[in-house]
C-alpha cells in the first residue's frame, strides 16, 4: 500500500520491536514508528472486534510495544481512536488532492474525489472500517468528530449548485443527503466484508451525486466514464 | 405510546424511563444507577427483565423499528401510485417521530448503540420501497437497485442529523426535502420540485 514504512509492510503476523536507539534522532524515529504501529494495531483490532471489544491490552500486544509506550503516545483508547481518525481523514484528503486538482470542471472534481476515496478504502479496509463503521459507536467526542468530517465534504458538493439552472430549486439538505448516501454504500460493504464490491459502486455514486445538479442524462454520461477517474498517485 | 414503554407494567416502566432519559441526554453517559433511580426500581428488579442497559435499549429500538416499518408499509400500500405511496410512507415516519420526540432521538440519533445488522435491515426495507419505483424508459441510471440503497442511506443520515441538531421540528420541516431526494431520480425534476412545494 505504500502508506507505511517498508519494514511495517513486511512484518509477519506478530509485529516486531524496533531496536532501541541511543541518540535523539533515533529516539524520535522510534517514538514515531511506535505511534504508527500502535495506530495500525488499533485499526486492525477495532475492525475485527469492534470498538467496544477493543482494549489497550490487545492493542499493545498486537503492536509489540509496552503498555507504558501506549500511554506515552495516547491518553487512552478513545484518544488513540480519535488520533487515528484525524490522521485518516487528512491522509485520505491528501491522497485525493492530485486527482481533484488535475480535474478542470466541478463534475470531474467530484468524480475524482469519490474515486480516490474508494481507492483509499479498498487499500486499507481495516482502517476504513474503523473510521467509517466503528467510530460512530465510540462515544460522543468520536461521533462529533465523525459528523464534522462528513459535513466538511458538503461545501465541495454545494459548488455544483452553480451548474443548476436558475429556475431549479434544490433542498437545503441535499449535500448532507448525498454524503450520507455515499458513506452508507461503503459502510454496508465494509460491514459485510464485501470490500471487493466497493470499486463497482463508483458509477452509481456519481449518478447519485451529480444528477440533482446536472440532470440525470449528464450525470449518467459522466458516470459512464467512471473508469477514467482512477487516482494517478 | 409504544407498547413496550407502557408504564402499566414494571418492564414498561423501565422502558418508558429509559426512553425519557435517552431522549433527554442520549445514551453515552447513561448508567444503570440513573435508570434505577429515575424509575424507582432496584437492580434486581431491572435484571428480572433485561440483562443490561444495552439489552433494554435494543428492546425499545426494535419496537420502534417494527412500528415504523408497519406504519410506513401501511401508508405505502394505501396508495396506488408509487410516488404517492412513498410520500405517504415518509410522512408516516415523520408523524411517528413528531408524536414521540424521545423515540426519534433513540431510534435515529442513538442508532449506533444498536446491533449494526438491525439498522442495516431497516435501511434495506426502505431501499426496497424505493426500488419499487416505476422504471422510466429514459431513466439512464445503470443500477436502480444500488441507487435506491444510496437514497435510503441519504434519507437516514439526513433525518438523524436533523433530529440531532434541530429536533423533530426540523425533521418535520424537511419532509418535502427528503421526498424530493427519493423522487428525483425516478420521476424527474418537475415531480421532485412538486414535493418540495408541498412542504
Descriptive notes:
The complex is a heterodimer of chains A (233) and B (199). By secondary structure, chain A is an all-alpha fold. Chain A has 12 helices and no strands. Chain A folds into 2 domains: 18-74, Homeodomain-like (Arc Repressor Mutant, subunit A, Orthogonal Bundle), CATH 1.10.10; 78-229, Tetracycline Repressor, domain 2, CATH 1.10.357. Chain A is elongated, with a radius of gyration of 20 Å. Chain B has helices at residues 10-25, 32-39, 43-47, 53-77, 82-99, 101-109, 116-131, 144-173, 175-187, 189-198. Chain B has 10 helices and no strands. Chain B is 75% helix and 0% strand. With 199 residues, chain B is mainly alpha-helical. In chain B, helix 5 (82-99) packs across helix 8. Chain B has one domain (54-198). Classes of the chains: A mainly alpha (233), B mainly alpha (199).
What is the terminal separation of chain A in angstroms? 12 Å
At the fold tier of CATH, the topology name of the largest domain in chain A is Tetracycline Repressor, domain 2
The end-to-end distance of chain B, rounded to whole angstroms, is 26 Å
Helix content of chain A: 55-70%
Write down the overall geometry of chain A: elongated
User: Main β-sheet of chain B: number of strands, strand sense, barrel status?
Assistant: none
Residue-averaged pLDDT of chain B, rounded? Answer: 90
Number of domains of chain B: 1
Percentage of residues in DSSP E strands of chain A: under 5%
What is the element string of chain B, with H for helices and E for strands? HHHHHHHHHH
Q: What CATH first level of the largest domain in chain A would be assigned?
A: Mainly Alpha
Amino acid at each position: 500500500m505504500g502508506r507505511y514504512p517498508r519494514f511495517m509492510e513486511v512484518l509477519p503476523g506478530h509485529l516486531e520491536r524496533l531496536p532501541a536507539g541511543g541518540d535523539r534522532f533515533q529516539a524520535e524515529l522510534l517514538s514515531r514508528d511506535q505511534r504508527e504501529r500502535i495506530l495500525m494495531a488499533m485499526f486492525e483490532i477495532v475492525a475485527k472486534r469492534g470498538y467496544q471489544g477493543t482494549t489497550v491490552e490487545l492493542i499493545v500486544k498486537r503492536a509489540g510495544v509496552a503498555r507504558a509506550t501506549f500511554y506515552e503516545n495516547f491518553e487512552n483508547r478513545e484518544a488513540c481512536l480519535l488520533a487515528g481518525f484525524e490522521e485518516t481523514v487528512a491522509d485520505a484528503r491528501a491522497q485525493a488532492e492530485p486527482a481533484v486538482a488535475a480535474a478542470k470542471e466541478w463534475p470531474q472534481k467530484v468524480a475524482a474525489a469519490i474515486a480516490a476515496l474508494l481507492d483509499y478504502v479498498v487499500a486499507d479496509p481495516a482502517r476504513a472500517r474503523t473510521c467509517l463503521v466503528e467510530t460512530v459507536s465510540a462515544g460522543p467526542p468520536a461521533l462529533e468528530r465523525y459528523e464534522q468530517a462528513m459535513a466538511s465534504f458538503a461545501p465541495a458538493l454545494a459548488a455544483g449548485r452553480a451548474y443548476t439552472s436558475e429556475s431549479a430549486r434544490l433542498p437545503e439538505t441535499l449535500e448532507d443527503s448525498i454524503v450520507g448516501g455515499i458513506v452508507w454504500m461503503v459502510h454496508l460493504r465494509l460491514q459485510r466484508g464485501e470490500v471487493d464490491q466497493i470499486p463497482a459502486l463508483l458509477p452509481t455514486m456519481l449518478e447519485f451525486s451529480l444528477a440533482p445538479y446536472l440532470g440525470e442524462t449528464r450525470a449518467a454520461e459522466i458516470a459512464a466514464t467512471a473508469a477514467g477517474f482512477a487516482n494517478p498517485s | 405510546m409504544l407498547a413496550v414503554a407502557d408504564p402499566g407494567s414494571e418492564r414498561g416502566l423501565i422502558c418508558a424511563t429509559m426512553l425519557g432519559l435517552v431522549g433527554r441526554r442520549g445514551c453515552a453517559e447513561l448508567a444503570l444507577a440513573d435508570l434505577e433511580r429515575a424509575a424507582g426500581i432496584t437492580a434486581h428488579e431491572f435484571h428480572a427483565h433485561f440483562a443490561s442497559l444495552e439489552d433494554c435499549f435494543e428492546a425499545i429500538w426494535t419496537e420502534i423499528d417494527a412500528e415504523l416499518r408497519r406504519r410506513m408499509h401501511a401508508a405505502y400500500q394505501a396508495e396506488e401510485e408509487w410516488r404517492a405511496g412513498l410520500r405517504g410512507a415518509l410522512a408516516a415516519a415523520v408523524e411517528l417521530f413528531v408524536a414521540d420526540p424521545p423515540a426519534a432521538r433513540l431510534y435515529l440519533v442513538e442508532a449506533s448503540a444498536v446491533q449494526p445488522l438491525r439498522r442495516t435491515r431497516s435501511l434495506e426495507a426502505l431501499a426496497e420501497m424505493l426500488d419499487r419505483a416505476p422504471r422510466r424508459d429514459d431513466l439512464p441510471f445503470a443500477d436502480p437497485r444500488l441507487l435506491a440503497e444510496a437514497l435510503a442511506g441519504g434519507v437516514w443520515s439526513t433525518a438523524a442529523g436533523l433530529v440531532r441538531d434541530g429536533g423533530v421540528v426540523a425533521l418535520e420541516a424537511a419532509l418535502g426535502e427528503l421526498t424530493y431526494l427519493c423522487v428525483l431520480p425516478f420521476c424527474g425534476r418537475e415531480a421532485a420540485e412538486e414535493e418540495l412545494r408541498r412542504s
